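[audit] Reproducing an earlier prediction to check determinism. Same input, same settings, fresh worker. If the tokens differ from the archived copy the diff job will pick it up downstream; this log only records the rerun itself.
[audit] input (351 residues):
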Amino acid sequence: MIRAQSRFFFAATLTVLALGALGACTGSEPSRTGTAGTTGAAGTTGVAGTTGASGTTGASGTTGASGTTGASGTTGASGTTGASGTTGASGTTGASGTTGAAGTTGAAGTTGAAGTTGAAGTTGAAGTGGAGKTPMCITEAVMEGVNRATGNYIECDVEDQAIDWDVAAAYDAASNGGKQRKPGYDPGVTPTSFTDYGTAFTGYAAQMCHPYCYKGNLTIGVEFNPATPAGLKGEALFDFPTTGLNVPIANAVGRASLGWIYLDGPALPAGATISAQMVLKTKAKGVILANNMMNNITTKKWYEFKYFPIQQGFAQADLVDVTSIGFRLTMAGTAGAWTGVVYADHFQLRK
């Protein structure tokens, strides 16, 4: 505390001495007290600047709409089923459509590829004109035909002018008692057809099943159905070749004709009667009928058509330009149906 006061006293003494010296320096002029200047007006305080308005916050960007999901691809159409016969392969299912890409409105899915068309069914062995059913061999008896041709040759002679559904290459002399057999026209040049006489014949096939001569025969499916008149009738024609031994047949007068049939299957319905009749076809007349028929045909038995010469069974004037030989069957006397086969063999119109 004492030191502080001493400091204050010393400072005050210095001040007095200074003032005294100042007075000694100015003492030659009379002292004039100057008029105090007017105190300048205080400057006006500047108006505070207006605070700038806050900037408006920019509106938020509108969120983009989501892309519409692409439609599912259309499933490919199923393959078309093959036609009847041996069943064709199923059509391949079309591939699924590709999902449409996302984005602004998704693109529609690609349509699935169409299914592959099924393979066509294999044509059965049934002949043209039938319903296409390949007949089955019911009673196999090939050796009966072979034995008949070798042991009773007269029943199977003139084989080179017969429609036998057989081929000559199968019958060499070494295997036929030293005699060279010549089974008739090759089946490939003797086509079979069914006429519009009826619908009871359902199909045919050349088979080694139940021949009358040699090893081959024609098997024809039979379905007698009384639901319609046509269902009780059937007619088959066998064309002669256009080239070969004694063909074409410009005039058949004087020729010998025969043919064999065998009905095979279950017993006939009660009261049923079946008739059989040989037919020929000519260029001018179409199908012509023999003047008689065999009645009361039964199953499990061979029946022979035989006209030696042919004009015994047909009008002589009609025997010009003969192109085909065959037969018809007709069932009557029953409301029952019957299904079986008929074997045909060794049909001739020979010189």
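[audit] rerun output stored. Observation attached for the diff report: Residues 2-25 form the longest helix (24 residues).
[audit] end
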